[in-house]
Amino acid sequence: MFKCPYLSYTEIGNRAASFLKQYHPSQDIPIPVEEIIELKLELNIFPFPRLYKDHGLNGFLSYDLTTIYVDEVQFNQFNEKYRYTLAHELGHYVLHRVCYEDLIFQSIEDYVNWRMTLPTDEVGWFETQGEWFAGQLLVPSNQLIDICKKVVAKHEDDFKKLSSIPDDIWSYISIEIADYFDVNPPVVENRIKKENIPAKINIKGE
Asked: What confidence tens digit (pLDDT) does each residue in 141-199 have?
């Protein structure tokens, strides 16, 4: 029976950090997730036609852990989303290998049918942990703090009359911060909240 391991956000962050230390020790951003997958892990990336349109999936990891399938439109047209999907499926590869040991699905239909047999809470944990891994892999904590300080300092004059930066302003500057990490702004906004960044830097970005 499929059983997803219950890992905390912090535990997954530690796994993502260890993974980066091994496969991208320079920690330079944006994290080259495609290069890591293809060149260092030697996994295949396969653009799957109409994967999202026909099956509602951004991507999935093959049962034998050799191939990451990703929606073809996303692959060709939406780089930030493509990178996030790769990181999400990489999360399953790193965190959930034991879950795949007894699986055999030869087609996308087999995969969809398998997912439909799973308990809702197990699927929820499975996907949530993939999301957590993706966010922490592509937007590592130390780099996030550094970039937030840099961007806040850049806009110091705009904030000088404020005692703190409101959430809606953090949402706005997440757009600029996201460019450094090559991800969509909601990914950065979520990471800022999870890491409690507003409490870690002051209004002058020092």
From this structure: 999 999 999 998 888 777 777 767 778 888 889 999 999 999 999 999 999 999 999 88
Convert the pLDDT of each residue in 28-73 to its tens digit.
999 999 999 999 999 999 999 999 999 999 999 998 999 999 999 9
Q: What gap in Å lies between CA 137 and CA 130, rounded to an integer?
A: 10
Spell out the residues 6+ positions from residue 174 whose beta carbon is closer than 8 angstroms to its own.
185, 186, 188, 189, 192
* Residues 46, 47, 48: CA angle, nearest 5 degrees: 105
Is residue 30 reached through a cis peptide bond, with omega within 30 degrees of 0 on the bond before it? yes
* CA distances for 48 relative to 23, 41, 43, 71, 193, angstroms: 26, 20, 15, 5, 33
CATH of 9-138, one of 1.10.3470, 3.30.1490, 1.10.10, 3.40.30: 1.10.10
pTM, full prediction: 0.91
Distances (CA, A) of 199 to 4, 140, 166, 168: 33, 17, 12, 15
- Written as six digits, the tokens of 101 are 């040991």
Start and end residues for every CATH 1.10.10 domain found in the chain:
9-138
